[in-house]
Amino acid sequence: MKKVYKAHILFTKEKDRFEVYENGYIAVEDGIVVGVASNLEALNAQDAEVIDFGDKLLIPAMNDMHVHAPQVHNQGVAMDLELLPWLQNYTFPEEAKYADVQYAERMYRRFLHTQWLFGTMRSVVFSTVHTDSTRKLMQLYQEAGMGALVGKVAMNRNCPDELCEDVDAAIAGNEQLIKEFNAQCSMFNAQCPPLVRPIITPRFVPSCTPELLKACGELAKKYKLPVQSHLSENTSEIAWVAELEPESKSYGDAYNRYGLFGQTPTIMAHCVWTAGSELELMKKNGVMVAHCPTSNFNLSSGMAPVRNLLDAGIRIGLGSDISGGHDLNMFRMLVYAIQVSKMQYQQNHDKAFLTLSEIFWIATKSAGSFFGKVGSFEPGYEFDALVIDDSVLYPAEYSLQHRLERFIYVGDDRQIVHRFCRGKEVEEPKVF
Ligand SMILES: [Zn+2]
Questions:
Q1: Residue-wise pLDDT tens for the chain (432 aa)?
Q2: What is the CA(344)–ligand 1 centre distance, in A?
Q3: Phi, psi of 199 (to 5 degrees)
């Protein structure tokens, strides 16, 4: 069933500029964009139902490429420590509560609702070590109709006893979820996999023994599943990894040795200190970076070299990384990322700061490539979209591109009036 949406359409096919269709039309069939044009005739869709959004903006939805759902209760608090003591003092005690599935459901509903408010339709998510509450999170995403790669966290050292699973239990729990959720893959073709799928999730090298990392790599290979983890976030962490993995040439190489660095699609959060052989290995293996600017500030980790990564041809997306990060509004993450790049530009004028179209492209089309064809309105892309009513932001005074910029900088969830994921309108999820 073909539908046509009419609005002011903006998206980034290339990172250097916006595609802008003033009073444009976009045709969608079975959740997939089949055409975008300035007039209806060009779409060959005269018989299709036309939904007219008037003077509103229609843009691709947001993708949060690194987020810890069980840290929602700590969002915006406990910003007084660096990464390693912060994990021990705040993060692990909160995650231990997710042994209780009822607590998990209450918190996860809160988390999903906030993502929905801010128009985040796809996410790459850490849960906790707990199989049952991870299953609940996946079910909630399915019910909401929002896309997510959800990882039951693997960790078995340098953590409290209640979050420490032995290798066999960690793999058995993961396999259970993989069987439950991957079984649904056969219902879909390879181009359009299920919206909610598992992702292999070793927390980070210091939390996982070599045996557990090896078992995670084997699991990813066996089930052809993607991998997520953390990489080169903080200098103390990097020094610790060098002690734990003396044979590895870099932190990234430590993952690579266990089949967790691009052997299947891989995304690594932070990469603040990535350079040299680690950068080369990321490029060679096609590893994506989840850039999390607020987390890097809050935990005093540093400023990720996004311009260098872009120049090196590394794939990048943006992550909120709550609760290291404090903000689930991914539009605001675009602003923070531009501001970080401007501070770097101030230090070294050889490196141009990020433009709005570059960061919009990173947040939508570049990030979306981790899910398949997501994040653009070119034909063949899944229709993940937001309708923005910026009428309270004095739109008549601005061009369409400046209207979008103004919404990104000063707008909020109140201006997002429709949300679509894979062509279906996503209704407000229930909270209790
Ligand atoms: Zn993280």
A1: 799 999 999 999 999 999 999 999 999 999 999 999 999 999 988 888 999 999 999 999 999 999 999 999 999 998 888 888 999 999 999 999 999 999 999 999 999 999 999 999 999 999 999 999 999 999 999 999 999 999 999 999 999 999 999 999 999 999 999 999 876 554 444 555 789 999 999 999 999 999 999 999 999 999 999 999 999 999 999 999 999 999 999 999 999 999 999 999 999 999 999 999 999 999 999 999 999 999 999 999 999 999 999 999 999 999 999 999 999 999 999 999 999 999 999 998 988 999 999 999 999 999 999 999 999 999 999 999 999 999 999 999 999 999 999 999 999 999 999 999 999 999 999 887
A2: 23
A3: -135, 140
Cα 178 to its chain centre, rounded Å, is 20
Residue with tokens 């490539």: 369
Longest dimension (CA), the chain: 66
- Cα of 64 vs centre of ligand 1, distance in Å, is 12
Per 3-state DSSP, what percentage of the chain is helix, strand, and coil (rounded to 5)?
45, 25, 35
| CA 289 – ligand 1 centroid, Å | 12
Separation of CA 295 and ligand 1 centre (Å): 8
Rounded to the nearest angstrom, the distance between the alpha carbon of 68 and the centre of ligand 1 is 6
Give distance in angstroms: CA of 107 to centre of ligand 1. Answer: 18
Calculate how far, in angstroms, residue 67's C-alpha sits from the geometric centre of ligand 1. Answer: 6
Distance 230 CA to ligand 1 centre (A): 6
- Eight-class DSSP state of 38: S
